[in-house]
Amino acid sequence: MEKLKERLDMFSDAVIAIIITIMVLELPMPQHDSLAEYLQFGKAIGIFFISFCFVANIWYQHSILYNDAETMNNHVFILEFIFLAFLSLTPTFTKLITVDTNRHTVMAYGILTFIVNGLFMLVSYSVIHQKYNDTIDIKKIFNKIYLNHSNSLGMINVAVLILAYFEPNWALWCYLTLPLISFVFNRDDHSDLEEVTQLSPANQDKYLEFSNVDLRDFRKKQREIGQKYSHQRRSNPNWQADMAEEMRKLFKDSGLDAQKINTNYTGKGRLNRDWLSKDNTRK
Description:
Layout: H1 2-25, H2 35-68, H3 74-87, H4 90-99, H5 103-132, H6 138-166, H7 168-196, H8 201-209, H9 212-230, H10 239-254, H11 273-276
């Protein structure tokens, strides 16, 4: 299955590369030397960039996901092929809104992106579940980390679909921002998942007890502490020890046990594995 995983990864990369190539080749070239046709050509390029950002974001998230996977089972293979089948429709729907931008074509494009994102979420869950099935309660962890942002993106998609019914041109450009939002959300979610899996079982349970507000406040305070002491590197010779002590207090107040704090500040302000790793927590 390991070799099949590598071949599936290469196959997926090839499909995505072909999708982008087709979108470029289907750009309508101006047939006459007129301002109207050049404006239409510029609009087509803009629509291409919307779809390019969407596909590029999918490729990035897909690469990160498969980079951590060791093997694949048949369930993942089936979901992957279904996901790629719908993703392969992107050039067709891109051409559709390029030729005629109206409420129906833009809504159809939005529905396709919604389906593709949903299928990718299923693929992600299957791959992650296979990797961590024997070590943690992956369903609870996955729901805690991914579903909050996934639900937010879903609601944004629905809102843009409604906007497309009334203002298709405005909705079209909204689809340019969605991949950027998705990129930020998924990057942070993947980082959190990797770091939470490094926690001891007791700290994993405490993490699951955090509300979304508590977790957001914890990250904010962690980031503020890191930034505070990063500015003291030259003026305070004991800045690492001081930062470690303040981090320990933050963890203690949050109910997380941290026996030893690694002071290699990354500036990310998230649940850094150096601070919350199994080696750094009390059993």
